[in-house]
Specification:
two-stranded parallel ribbon, 12 strands
Protein backbone atom coordinates (compact mmCIF):
# COMPACT_ATOMS: atom_id res chain seq x y z
CA UNK A 1 0.00 0.00 0.00
CA UNK A 2 2.64 2.47 1.11
CA UNK A 3 4.98 1.41 -1.66
CA UNK A 4 2.80 3.54 -3.91
CA UNK A 5 2.76 6.50 -1.49
CA UNK A 6 4.02 9.29 -3.67
CA UNK A 7 4.04 7.23 -6.84
CA UNK A 8 0.31 6.59 -6.92
CA UNK A 9 -0.54 10.09 -5.75
CA UNK A 10 1.76 11.95 -8.08
CA UNK A 11 1.17 9.55 -10.96
CA UNK A 12 -2.38 10.85 -11.23
CA UNK A 13 -0.97 14.30 -11.90
CA UNK A 14 0.12 15.03 -15.46
CA UNK A 15 2.97 15.47 -16.18
CA UNK A 16 4.52 13.43 -13.37
CA UNK A 17 7.04 14.74 -10.90
CA UNK A 18 10.44 13.71 -12.23
CA UNK A 19 12.65 12.68 -9.36
CA UNK A 20 14.76 9.55 -8.96
CA UNK A 21 13.14 6.34 -7.78
CA UNK A 22 13.38 6.06 -4.00
CA UNK A 23 13.56 2.83 -2.02
CA UNK A 24 13.85 3.69 1.68
CA UNK A 25 12.47 1.29 4.27
CA UNK A 26 11.23 -1.11 1.61
CA UNK A 27 9.53 1.62 -0.43
CA UNK A 28 9.50 1.32 -4.18
CA UNK A 29 8.49 4.72 -5.48
CA UNK A 30 8.64 5.51 -9.16
CA UNK A 31 7.57 9.11 -9.36
CA UNK A 32 8.68 9.57 -12.95
CA UNK A 33 6.17 7.13 -14.40
CA UNK A 34 2.48 7.50 -15.13
CA UNK A 35 0.21 4.49 -15.44
CA UNK A 36 -2.37 5.28 -18.07
CA UNK A 37 -5.93 4.15 -17.53
CA UNK A 38 -7.19 1.57 -20.03
CA UNK A 39 -9.50 2.75 -22.80
CA UNK A 40 -13.07 3.11 -21.71
CA UNK A 41 -16.33 3.98 -23.42
CA UNK A 42 -16.24 7.32 -21.61
CA UNK A 43 -12.80 8.90 -21.44
CA UNK A 44 -11.41 9.46 -17.99
CA UNK A 45 -10.87 13.08 -17.03
CA UNK A 46 -7.29 13.65 -15.99
CA UNK A 47 -5.98 16.41 -13.81
CA UNK A 48 -3.50 18.63 -15.62
CA UNK A 49 -0.98 20.35 -13.39
CA UNK A 50 2.34 21.85 -14.37
CA UNK A 51 5.66 20.94 -12.81
CA UNK A 52 6.26 24.49 -11.68
CA UNK A 53 2.99 24.59 -9.75
CA UNK A 54 4.09 21.58 -7.71
CA UNK A 55 7.02 23.61 -6.41
CA UNK A 56 4.84 25.11 -3.71
CA UNK A 57 5.91 27.47 -0.96
CA UNK A 58 5.65 24.52 1.40
CA UNK A 59 8.20 22.57 -0.67
CA UNK A 60 10.60 25.50 -0.69
CA UNK A 61 10.17 26.31 2.99
CA UNK A 62 10.83 22.77 4.21
CA UNK A 63 13.09 21.58 1.37
CA UNK A 64 10.83 18.66 0.43
CA UNK A 65 10.12 17.42 -3.06
CA UNK A 66 6.37 16.86 -2.57
CA UNK A 67 3.73 19.11 -0.96
CA UNK A 68 2.64 16.31 1.35
CA UNK A 69 2.67 15.93 5.12
CA UNK A 70 2.11 12.87 7.29
CA UNK A 71 -0.70 13.39 9.79
CA UNK A 72 0.83 12.85 13.25
CA UNK A 73 -1.58 10.08 14.24
CA UNK A 74 -1.02 8.77 17.76
CA UNK A 75 -0.48 5.01 17.92
CA UNK A 76 -0.06 4.87 14.15
CA UNK A 77 2.45 7.43 12.87
CA UNK A 78 5.43 6.20 14.87
CA UNK A 79 9.11 6.65 14.24
CA UNK A 80 9.30 4.15 11.38
CA UNK A 81 6.51 5.77 9.37
CA UNK A 82 7.70 9.33 10.06
CA UNK A 83 11.23 8.49 8.89
CA UNK A 84 9.96 6.69 5.79
CA UNK A 85 7.80 9.64 4.76
CA UNK A 86 10.68 12.09 5.25
CA UNK A 87 13.00 9.89 3.20
CA UNK A 88 10.37 9.70 0.46
CA UNK A 89 10.44 13.48 0.04
CA UNK A 90 7.45 14.59 2.13
CA UNK A 91 7.17 16.03 5.65
CA UNK A 92 7.34 13.20 8.19
CA UNK A 93 5.99 13.69 11.72
CA UNK A 94 5.91 11.39 14.74
CA UNK A 95 2.40 11.35 16.21
CA UNK A 96 1.72 11.27 19.94
CA UNK A 97 -1.97 12.17 20.27
CA UNK A 98 -3.38 10.23 23.22
CA UNK A 99 0.07 8.87 24.06
CA UNK A 100 2.63 9.72 26.75
CA UNK A 101 5.71 11.91 26.45
CA UNK A 102 7.76 8.77 27.09
CA UNK A 103 6.13 7.20 24.04
CA UNK A 104 6.97 10.30 21.97
CA UNK A 105 10.62 10.19 23.02
CA UNK A 106 10.85 6.48 22.21
CA UNK A 107 9.33 6.94 18.76
CA UNK A 108 11.54 9.95 18.10
CA UNK A 109 14.59 7.81 18.83
CA UNK A 110 13.31 5.19 16.39
CA UNK A 111 12.91 7.82 13.69
CA UNK A 112 16.42 9.15 14.28
CA UNK A 113 17.86 5.64 14.01
CA UNK A 114 16.22 5.32 10.58
CA UNK A 115 17.37 8.60 9.11
CA UNK A 116 15.29 11.10 11.04
CA UNK A 117 12.11 13.03 10.39
CA UNK A 118 10.98 16.64 10.40
CA UNK A 119 9.10 16.91 13.67
CA UNK A 120 6.38 15.63 15.95
CA UNK A 121 2.74 16.27 16.73
CA UNK A 122 1.03 16.56 20.09
CA UNK A 123 -2.41 17.62 21.30
CA UNK A 124 -2.47 20.95 23.14
CA UNK A 125 -4.39 19.44 26.08
CA UNK A 126 -1.71 16.80 26.60
CA UNK A 127 1.20 19.03 27.55
CA UNK A 128 1.87 22.33 29.27
CA UNK A 129 4.09 24.98 27.71
CA UNK A 130 7.04 24.28 30.03
CA UNK A 131 7.15 20.57 29.24
CA UNK A 132 6.64 21.32 25.55
CA UNK A 133 9.66 23.64 25.58
CA UNK A 134 11.69 20.86 27.21
CA UNK A 135 10.65 18.47 24.45
CA UNK A 136 11.63 20.97 21.77
CA UNK A 137 15.00 21.68 23.40
CA UNK A 138 15.72 17.97 23.78
CA UNK A 139 14.44 16.55 20.48
CA UNK A 140 15.27 19.60 18.34
CA UNK A 141 12.51 19.17 15.73
CA UNK A 142 12.21 21.43 12.72
CA UNK A 143 8.44 21.69 13.24
CA UNK A 144 5.89 20.86 15.94
CA UNK A 145 2.28 20.14 14.98
CA UNK A 146 -0.02 21.39 17.78
CA UNK A 147 -3.50 19.90 17.49
CA UNK A 148 -6.91 20.77 18.84
CA UNK A 149 -6.60 23.86 20.99
CA UNK A 150 -5.66 27.48 21.49
CA UNK A 151 -1.93 27.57 20.80
CA UNK A 152 -1.43 31.05 22.23
CA UNK A 153 -3.50 31.16 25.43
CA UNK A 154 -1.17 29.07 27.59
CA UNK A 155 2.05 29.71 25.73
CA UNK A 156 2.30 26.61 23.55
CA UNK A 157 3.16 28.45 20.34
CA UNK A 158 5.80 30.58 22.04
CA UNK A 159 7.35 27.50 23.65
CA UNK A 160 7.92 26.00 20.21
CA UNK A 161 9.04 29.21 18.51
CA UNK A 162 11.39 30.23 21.32
CA UNK A 163 12.89 26.74 21.12
CA UNK A 164 13.83 27.34 17.49
CA UNK A 165 11.11 25.29 15.73
CA UNK A 166 8.15 26.31 13.61
CA UNK A 167 4.53 25.70 14.60
CA UNK A 168 1.96 23.80 12.56
CA UNK A 169 -1.59 23.84 13.95
CA UNK A 170 -4.99 22.69 12.74
CA UNK A 171 -8.22 24.67 12.50
CA UNK A 172 -11.77 23.94 11.43
CA UNK A 173 -13.01 27.49 10.82
CA UNK A 174 -11.75 30.78 9.45
CA UNK A 175 -11.78 32.54 12.83
CA UNK A 176 -9.38 29.97 14.29
CA UNK A 177 -7.20 30.13 11.18
CA UNK A 178 -6.63 33.88 11.65
CA UNK A 179 -6.17 33.43 15.41
CA UNK A 180 -3.44 30.85 14.79
CA UNK A 181 -1.71 33.17 12.33
CA UNK A 182 -1.74 35.98 14.90
CA UNK A 183 -0.01 33.58 17.32
CA UNK A 184 2.86 32.97 14.92
CA UNK A 185 1.82 29.64 13.40
CA UNK A 186 3.77 28.98 10.21
CA UNK A 187 1.47 26.37 8.63
CA UNK A 188 -2.24 26.12 9.40
CA UNK A 189 -3.94 22.83 8.57
CA UNK A 190 -7.57 23.29 7.58
CA UNK A 191 -9.26 20.13 8.83
CA UNK A 192 -12.99 19.50 8.71
CA UNK A 193 -15.74 16.93 8.57
CA UNK A 194 -14.03 15.02 5.74
CA UNK A 195 -11.16 13.88 7.96
CA UNK A 196 -10.65 10.58 9.71
CA UNK A 197 -9.66 10.18 13.34
CA UNK A 198 -10.82 12.89 15.73
CA UNK A 199 -12.14 15.87 13.87
CA UNK A 200 -14.57 18.76 13.83
CA UNK A 201 -17.79 17.84 12.05
CA UNK A 202 -19.18 21.29 11.28
CA UNK A 203 -17.99 21.83 7.71
CA UNK A 204 -15.94 20.36 4.91
CA UNK A 205 -12.38 21.61 4.80
CA UNK A 206 -12.80 22.14 1.05
CA UNK A 207 -15.46 24.77 1.88
CA UNK A 208 -13.30 26.48 4.52
CA UNK A 209 -9.98 26.46 2.64
CA UNK A 210 -10.48 29.23 0.02
CA UNK A 211 -12.17 31.54 2.53
CA UNK A 212 -9.31 30.93 4.95
CA UNK A 213 -6.76 31.94 2.30
CA UNK A 214 -8.67 35.13 1.58
CA UNK A 215 -8.94 35.94 5.29
CA UNK A 216 -5.22 35.41 5.91
CA UNK A 217 -4.27 37.63 2.98
CA UNK A 218 -6.69 40.34 4.11
CA UNK A 219 -5.21 40.24 7.62
CA UNK A 220 -1.68 40.67 6.30
CA UNK A 221 -0.65 37.05 6.83
CA UNK A 222 0.31 36.37 3.22
CA UNK A 223 3.39 34.45 4.37
CA UNK A 224 1.39 31.95 6.45
CA UNK A 225 0.98 28.63 4.63
CA UNK A 226 -2.20 26.58 4.45
CA UNK A 227 -2.44 22.81 4.33
CA UNK A 228 -5.53 20.73 3.66
CA UNK A 229 -6.54 17.64 5.65
CA UNK A 230 -9.41 15.25 5.08
CA UNK A 231 -10.24 12.49 2.64
CA UNK A 232 -7.35 12.85 0.19
CA UNK A 233 -6.08 9.53 -1.13
CA UNK A 234 -4.66 10.29 -4.59
CA UNK A 235 -3.46 13.01 -6.92
CA UNK A 236 -6.94 14.23 -7.74
CA UNK A 237 -7.45 15.28 -4.13
CA UNK A 238 -4.00 16.85 -3.97
CA UNK A 239 -4.68 18.86 -7.13
CA UNK A 240 -8.09 19.99 -5.84
CA UNK A 241 -6.60 21.20 -2.55
CA UNK A 242 -3.80 23.10 -4.29
CA UNK A 243 -6.30 24.69 -6.66
CA UNK A 244 -8.37 25.94 -3.71
CA UNK A 245 -5.37 27.65 -2.14
CA UNK A 246 -3.51 25.02 -0.15
CA UNK A 247 0.28 24.95 -0.12
CA UNK A 248 0.34 21.32 1.04
CA UNK A 249 -1.86 18.33 1.80
CA UNK A 250 -1.93 16.21 4.96
CA UNK A 251 -2.33 12.45 4.52
CA UNK A 252 -3.58 10.33 7.41
CA UNK A 253 -5.74 7.30 6.68
CA UNK A 254 -4.02 6.85 3.30
CA UNK A 255 -0.78 6.12 5.16
CA UNK A 256 -2.21 4.37 8.22
CA UNK A 257 -2.22 1.10 6.26
CA UNK A 258 1.46 1.45 5.34
CA UNK A 259 3.93 -1.29 6.18
CA UNK A 260 5.79 1.22 8.35
CA UNK A 261 2.64 2.21 10.25
CA UNK A 262 2.34 1.02 13.85
CA UNK A 263 -1.22 -0.16 13.25
CA UNK A 264 -1.91 -3.87 13.67
CA UNK A 265 -2.11 -6.04 10.57
CA UNK A 266 -5.84 -6.48 11.25
CA UNK A 267 -6.33 -2.71 11.26
CA UNK A 268 -4.44 -2.23 8.02
CA UNK A 269 -6.44 -4.97 6.34
CA UNK A 270 -9.67 -3.35 7.53
CA UNK A 271 -8.62 -0.01 6.03
CA UNK A 272 -7.63 -1.59 2.73
CA UNK A 273 -10.98 -3.34 2.49
CA UNK A 274 -13.10 -0.27 3.22
CA UNK A 275 -14.99 1.62 0.52
CA UNK A 276 -17.86 4.10 0.32
CA UNK A 277 -16.64 6.03 3.35
CA UNK A 278 -19.94 7.80 3.93
CA UNK A 279 -21.52 4.46 4.78
CA UNK A 280 -18.43 2.54 5.90
CA UNK A 281 -17.48 4.97 8.67
CA UNK A 282 -19.22 6.63 11.59
CA UNK A 283 -18.25 9.52 13.84
CA UNK A 284 -19.03 10.22 17.47
CA UNK A 285 -17.80 10.17 21.05
CA UNK A 286 -19.11 6.66 21.57
CA UNK A 287 -16.03 5.11 19.97
CA UNK A 288 -13.82 6.51 22.75
CA UNK A 289 -16.30 5.71 25.51
CA UNK A 290 -16.38 2.10 24.37
CA UNK A 291 -12.64 1.96 25.03
CA UNK A 292 -12.99 3.50 28.48
CA UNK A 293 -12.00 7.03 27.46
CA UNK A 294 -14.44 9.59 28.87
CA UNK A 295 -13.11 12.35 26.63
CA UNK A 296 -10.30 12.21 24.10
CA UNK A 297 -7.48 14.73 24.49
CA UNK A 298 -8.69 16.41 21.29
CA UNK A 299 -12.06 17.13 22.88
CA UNK A 300 -13.66 16.05 19.60
CA UNK A 301 -15.62 13.03 18.35
CA UNK A 302 -13.73 10.32 16.51
CA UNK A 303 -14.31 8.60 13.20
CA UNK A 304 -13.94 4.85 12.76
CA UNK A 305 -15.06 1.99 10.55
CA UNK A 306 -18.58 0.66 10.95
CA UNK A 307 -18.59 -2.86 12.42
CA UNK A 308 -20.01 -4.96 15.23
CA UNK A 309 -18.45 -2.70 17.86
CA UNK A 310 -20.12 0.43 16.51
CA UNK A 311 -23.39 -1.52 16.26
CA UNK A 312 -23.44 -1.45 20.08
CA UNK A 313 -24.12 2.31 20.11
CA UNK A 314 -27.90 2.12 20.50
CA UNK A 315 -27.56 -0.33 23.36
CA UNK A 316 -24.92 1.93 24.90
CA UNK A 317 -27.10 5.03 24.67
CA UNK A 318 -30.07 3.26 26.24
CA UNK A 319 -28.05 1.37 28.87
CA UNK A 320 -29.78 1.73 32.27
CA UNK A 321 -26.60 1.72 34.35
CA UNK A 322 -22.79 2.02 34.27
CA UNK A 323 -22.66 -1.73 34.81
CA UNK A 324 -24.66 -2.32 31.63
CA UNK A 325 -22.22 -0.15 29.67
CA UNK A 326 -19.28 -1.97 31.21
CA UNK A 327 -20.77 -5.22 29.93
CA UNK A 328 -20.95 -3.76 26.42
CA UNK A 329 -17.30 -2.69 26.67
CA UNK A 330 -16.43 -6.22 27.72
CA UNK A 331 -18.30 -7.57 24.70
CA UNK A 332 -16.38 -5.19 22.46
CA UNK A 333 -13.00 -6.16 23.90
CA UNK A 334 -13.82 -9.86 23.67
CA UNK A 335 -14.70 -9.46 19.99
CA UNK A 336 -11.45 -7.63 19.32
CA UNK A 337 -9.45 -10.32 21.09
CA UNK A 338 -11.22 -13.13 19.25
CA UNK A 339 -10.44 -11.48 15.92
CA UNK A 340 -6.74 -11.20 16.65
CA UNK A 341 -6.90 -7.45 17.16
CA UNK A 342 -8.83 -4.33 16.27
CA UNK A 343 -10.11 -4.77 12.72
CA UNK A 344 -12.96 -5.00 10.26
CA UNK A 345 -15.38 -7.06 12.38
CA UNK A 346 -14.72 -5.66 15.86
CA UNK A 347 -12.84 -2.54 16.95
CA UNK A 348 -12.63 1.22 16.56
CA UNK A 349 -10.08 1.71 13.73
Amino acid sequence: FFRLLLGSIMATLTPPIKVPSLRPCGLRLRLSRVTRAPCRTRPRTRVMISLSSMNTRFCRQYLVSSPLMLAPMGGCAGGKLAAAVSKAGALGLVGSGGESQKYLRQQWSISQAQGGCHGFGINVAQVNAEDLRTLVDTLKPQVVYLSFGDVREKGHANAVIDGGAQVIANAADVQTVVKHADAGVAVIVVQGADAGGHTDGRASAFAVLPEARDALDAAGHNDVLLAYAGGVADGRGVAAALTLGADAVVLGTRLAAAEESDYLATQKEALRGASDGANATTIGRFVDALNGIDEHSSGLPGRCLVNRSTALKDAWDSAPSPEARAELSTQHRAGVAAGGGDGAEWGTT
